[in-house]
């Protein structure tokens, strides 16, 4: 749930900050529009591609989900550090790839790890947690920007919470083993 909150709030807050970050670096609003459009097109293409691939036997949803979170973090980090138009656009394309991957797999991963019977509860908990995240994550990024007068630091905050999402998913196998052990102890 926490990982989903991080990604959902990045998905909403990061694109809203992009035009302002680009303008502060001397780029035009047209550049911001192109960057966001390229990201959206890539996002859409990845959602279609990943959704089509997710039913394949070789497709590991958790690994691809984690890869998407890494792409998000890498792209935001690069975006916050470069000023070349080529690298900015490339970073936004990679961001779109990451968001498209993560968003197309989010519900599938929840079902895989929590089961169909728990889906309505986990969706409700995720929505509630997203609401709390909306009141904390976006304003925190804004506070960082206002306090340090730096869009770069604010954007790096988004990259950091995306890495936290990745790290939470690296712990999932350990959590599954712990849950399995608890269930075995209950049976005995």
Mind sketching the topology for me?
Elements: H1 2-24, H2 29-53, H3 61-81, H4 85-114, H5 119-148, H6 151-170, H7 172-187
Helix pairs in contact: 1-2, 1-4, 1-5, 1-6, 2-4, 3-4, 3-6, 5-6
Q: What is the residue-mean pLDDT, rounded to a whole number?
A: 93
**Cα shape:** globular
The portion of residues forming beta strands comes to under 5%
Compute the gyration radius: what is it? 18 Å
Helix and strand sequence = HHHHHHH
Total beta strand runs: 0
Contiguous helical run count: 7
Tell me what the structure shows.
Helices cover 88% and strands 0% of the residues. It is globular, with a radius of gyration of 18 Å. It is mainly α and 188 residues long. Helix 1 runs antiparallel to helix 2, helix 1 runs parallel beside helix 5 and helix 3 packs antiparallel against helix 6. The longest helix is centred in the middle third of the chain and has 30 residues. The two termini are 30 Å apart. Keywords: Membrane, Transmembrane, Transmembrane helix. InterPro entries: MFS (IPR011701), MFS_dom (IPR020846), MFS_trans_sf (IPR036259), Proton-linked_MCT (IPR050327). It is found in: Membrane. One of its GO terms (molecular function) is monocarboxylic acid transmembrane transporter activity. This is Major facilitator superfamily (MFS) profile domain-containing protein.
Question: Which key phrases capture this entry?
Answer:
mainly alpha; 188 residues; 7 helices; globular
Task: Provide a short characterization of the protein structure.
The chain is built from seven helices and no strands.
């Amino acid at each position: 749930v926490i990982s989903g909150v991080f990604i959902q709030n990045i998905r909403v807050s990061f694109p809203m900050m992009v035009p302002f970050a680009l303008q502060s670096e001397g780029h035009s609003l047209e550049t911001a529009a192109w960057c966001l459009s390229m990201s959206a097109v890539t996002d859409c293409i990845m959602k279609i591609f990943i959704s089509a691939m997710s039913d394949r036997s070789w497709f590991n949803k958790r690994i691809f989900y984690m890869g998407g979170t890494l792409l998000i973090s890498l792209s935001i980090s690069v975006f916050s550090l470069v000023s070349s138009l080529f690298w900015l656009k490339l970073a936004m394309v990679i961001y779109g790839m990451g968001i498209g991957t993560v968003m197309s797999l989010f519900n599938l991963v929840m079902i895989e790890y929590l089961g169909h019977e728990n889906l309505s509860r986990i969706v409700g908990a995720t929505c509630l947690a997203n609401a709390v995240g909306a009141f904390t994550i976006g304003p925190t990024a804004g506070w960082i920007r206002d306090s340090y007068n730096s869009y770069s630091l604010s954007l790096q905050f988004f990259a950091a919470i995306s890495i936290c999402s990745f790290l939470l998913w690296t712990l999932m196998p350990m959590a599954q083993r712990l849950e399995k052990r608890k269930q075995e102890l209950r049976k005995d």
